[in-house]
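Fold it.
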Amino acid sequence: DVTVWEDNAYQTRSGDNWDLTEIAYGKDGSGNPFYVAVVNSNNPEIIHDDDGDITDGQQWTEINLGGSNQPVGNLRQRTVEWGNNVWVTAGMLTSSNKYIYRSTDGTSWTAIDISGLTDIGNVYTNGIYALTQDGAGKWWFGIGGKLYHSSDNASSWSLHATFTGETIQDLVYTNNTLVALVKSGGNAHLRAAASSDTTDFSSLVQLEDSNSDGLNGNNAKRMAAGAGRVVVRDTARTLAADVSGKTITIQGTRQDLPDEGNLNAICTDGQGNWYTGSDGGSTGPDGGDICRSTDNGLSWSKIAEGINKSGDRKVEDIVADVYLPV
């Protein structure tokens, strides 16, 4: 019900413009539930809830990168994830500012200098939007056509694989499988690798169904994964696939979601339930929309339309309170 969402809408910081990019669920340094988000504009770059109760209406704490007693750098972070008791954020890079950020409690952060990584100087202008981990200390991020890897819980990194002529849009991990969403030749594709060797990827599998209906290669930039199912979204549609090692099998047909406005976000609880968030407001009530699938992304229904709290609220990201990967 849309009123439930509106009744539980709070500004994370007084005077902020609500302009968040991504939110993640994990644990604080004591093992309690915790949320961290990255912000699209206006300082800070990283924010976190202090007690894990995001419905108490309390202000979130901000991390101003480059500020007093904060890590070096001041660039926007575009993605955040928790796994194996470590938080990582990544985002924009410049020729002189190449860092990702790591925390073991979500409150105190350390800048990890990645300027020495092989070929990072050739792809830094793309920014890092693709980040994932296996829940046991292995992490990956993608930028341009380069895949980088850490085997020590995001403390150090190295070049892992190169996808020539491709752009890595997103990464997920499920069913002992690393999955890359890539753009190649203007179309959206998946590649997959078994956890036993995540340098050995499958060939490209284009994201199109048996009717040859596919996703837009320029706009298919986000996906979620759970129990071996991957669902990819573009700005209005989704398509599902099952993954197991290097095997990728498209499932069902391309779905035109019953929401309105730009489709921004997708998540799953790993139990067959999936959620998307969008801008909303094309013809229906102004404000964000949320859709749900209870059949592993094969069909969708709109469960909240026109989310409005002191103005229209576009749904930029959405997360379930489960620990990734699932």
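The chain has a mean pLDDT of 95.
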